Amino acid sequence: MSATAPTSRSARSGPVEPVGPPDGSAATAAAAAVEVRGVSRRFASRSGDVVALSDVDLTVRAGEFVSLIGPSGCGKSTLLRLIADLDRPTGGELTVFGRPPHVARQNHDFGIAFQQAGLLPWRSVRANVELPLELHGTGRAARRARAAELLGLVGLADFADHRPDQLSGGMQQRVAIARALAESPSLLLMDEPFGALDEMTREHVQTELLRLRAESGAAVVFVTHSIPEAVYLSDRVVVMSARPGRVREIVPVALGSAGDRTEELREDDQFFDRVRAVREALHGTDPADGTARGVDQR
Amino acid sequence: MRAAGRWREVLAPVLLGVVALLAWQATVIGLELRPFVVPSPTAIGEQLVDHAAVIAAASWSTARNAFWGLVIGVAVALLAAAVSAAVRVVDEMTAPLVAAAAVVPIVALAPVLYTMFGANAQTARVVVAAIVSFVPVYVNTLRGLRTVTPVHRDLMRVYAATRRQATRVVTLPGALPFFFSGLRVAASVAVISALVAEYFGGPVDGLGKAITSAVSSSNYPLAWAYVVGAVVIGLVFFCATLALERGVLHRGNLRQRP
Ligand SMILES: Nc1ncnc2c1ncn2[C@@H]1O[C@H](COP(=O)(O)OP(=O)(O)OP(=O)(O)O)[C@@H](O)[C@H]1O
Ligand SMILES: [Mg+2]
């Protein structure tokens, strides 16, 4: 999978001050993929300030799959954007692989998939997948090979020369995921990437994502509104509450490694058990703080 | 099936045109209309054939003015839009000027311009066509350059793309359709303004001049024959821009950027 991964990650990233370990590798020893410490984000608006996030703590270990779930407006997207350095916190501190988010971004340490596929409509599917490689100076042949490999992985090998608007929404979303995986990032950020898919396609793509992740060993921060989806995919589920956005509870899933999870798991008692645990956390009667629920409070 | 559709696409308007011409001819003959009211298609056709060379020369002269006006107007518009998109202050300073250029009937400037550039030169006509075609191209292209969807902007930021890369990969391709809709408008107004500018003075060649002189010597079918020439130029300009748009946008869609 990583055979054609770019070898000189930090060498061609534009006007960047050299940072991090000299070899430029993403995962420094023992550094967590994401470390969030007392982070707040307040939006000033004419009708008063909105506290999107208030004092959020979260650690995502390297290789770990963590889902963010919570009511609409609880700050899930905001948190993801802070990690991706698309926004800055008004309080607290974040690190990505032990470095400030903007450094991680300049180092191409993470890939991202938004709720909208966000493909460039004037480029072919292949050229869309090649985009990050092209921007970071990977040679033409290597780019092509990598794109072909990725499109094969997401089951779209036959659509490489199509334009995005010739694809269904679910297919476009898979192209976006292939694009996010293009540089074999050690961290994948995904904001409701399957939100627009029908249930069948969704389950199919979930299984695909598990497989891709088992192969790449990347850490994933995954925003979703679906409890079964969160449970099926994650090592831990972060349950958030709104106004102000806080982490209410973190539910460990512990249903085995990504590679071991199969479609049968969806029928498993343990699976339903975890779904119930997340649902209870989500609808918890003690919104002030979710302590003393007998679950992991990391 | 597809070929049949193609044929129908071409055949239907042609058939409609033929029917309309027949009806026109019948009306002129049936009502015994005088030529200054409206000449018959056959009368106009006769003039077209008899004076083919002069009509072509006049059309060519007007078309040339319109073309150079369009080229200059578009070039300046693209440059100005690029500068305005990059430097906000420039945009704010020039906005009132552009608004003025959009509302002032530029052809009305023609007499002044003839004095400025000399009544024997075509310059005034070219300048009029240039100013008139500048406006739609500038306004549309600038809007296109400004319209980068938030998700694409985020994407460029996540990939730490340089400003140059973001411009090449996202901003310019996104602005192309806007540019072309501006160009389509510009192409037709360039022809109209170059022709109308001839009514206000300048050298004696060109369709506008030819139409006025044909009318003043009461040769109405010939005047109409010149009008046919104007219609042909307009169509040529329109089809050329359309072909350019199709060519560029289609190629852009599937091209692998090196
Ligand atoms: N750019 C912004 N300016 C002002 N307020 C914002 C901005 N972005 C987010 N907010 C506010 O922050 C809060 C959290 O927004 P966010 O998009 O993170 O929610 P979310 O959990 O992703 O919701 P959803 O599940 O509906 O996507 C909301 O109340 C929203 O109004
Ligand atoms: Mg959101």
Brief digest:
The complex is a heterodimer of chains A (298) and B (258). Chain A has helices at 76-83, 101-106, 125-135, 140-153, 169-181, 199-216, 227-233, 269-282; strands at 34-43, 50-60, 65-69, 91-96, 110-113, 187-191, 219-223, 236-241, 246-252. Chain A has 298 residues and is α/β, with parallel strands linked by helices.
The number of helical runs of chain B is 10
What is the overall shape of chain B?
Answer: flat
CATH topology of the largest domain in chain A, what is it called?
Rossmann fold
The overall pLDDT of chain B, averaged over residues, is: 87
Give the CATH superfamily of the largest domain in chain A.
P-loop containing nucleotide triphosphate hydrolases
Assign the structural class of chain B, choosing from mainly alpha, mainly beta, alpha/beta, alpha+beta, or little secondary structure: mainly alpha
- Give the topology string of chain B: H per helix, E per strand: HHHHHHHHHH
Share of helical residues of chain A = 25-40%
Bound molecules: adenosine-5'-triphosphate, magnesium ion
N-to-C series of helices and strands of chain A: EEEHEHEHHHEHEHEEH
| Number of separate strands of chain A | 9
Structural class of chain A: alpha/beta
What number of domains of chain A?
2
User: How big a fraction of the residues of chain A is strand?
Assistant: 15-25%
Unreliable spans of chain B are 254-258
Pfam families (chain A): ABC_tran
Biased composition (Low complexity) (chain A): 1-13
Domain ABC transporter (chain A): 34-267
Keywords (chain A): ATP-binding, Nucleotide-binding, Transport
